[in-house]
């Protein structure tokens, strides 16, 4: 996993501002592309699970289109991956995106099996993502404060 520290000025004393900006831009682009790839994997795995379940395997889905649920959970996965990459960047959190992928895949399977109302799904997920954002901010603040204390 790349070390993406959007706010760090470590090891940049001898680096010009253009090179620092270029490095920051490539880190942000890397995080966005990585999160998009993870969300696309979730979308594909969710659709494959939907097709597999329609053969009568363990958790057979309700009839109807899976696209709204797949798109919703892919959006949740994308935002969750971005949050985790941003929060864990200073600690070098390896494998954080896989945690989001596993949780989101479980949500996709349950959604395709039970078809909850999408409004209810969004009503539960948005506060969860806001809570995750608050936790990420607290984590970053704690690590920056600890770094400042060491210096």
Main pleated-sheet profile: none
Distance between the termini: 26 Å
Would you tell me the overall average pLDDT?
A: 77
Estimated share of beta-strand residues: under 5%
Order of helices and strands: HHHH
Oligomer: single chain
Class from helix and strand fractions? mainly alpha
Tally of alpha and pi helices: 4
Structure summarized in a few sentences:
This protein is mainly alpha-helical.
Please supply descriptive tags for the structure shown above.
151 residues; mainly alpha; 4 helices; elongated
Structure commentary:
By secondary structure, this protein is an all-alpha fold. The chain contains four helices and no strands. The protein has helices at residues 17-53, 67-87, 96-114, 118-150. α2 (67-87) runs antiparallel to α3 (96-114).
Tell me the layout of helices and strands.
Elements: H1 17-53, H2 67-87, H3 96-114, H4 118-150
Helix pairs in contact: 1-2, 1-3, 2-3, 2-4
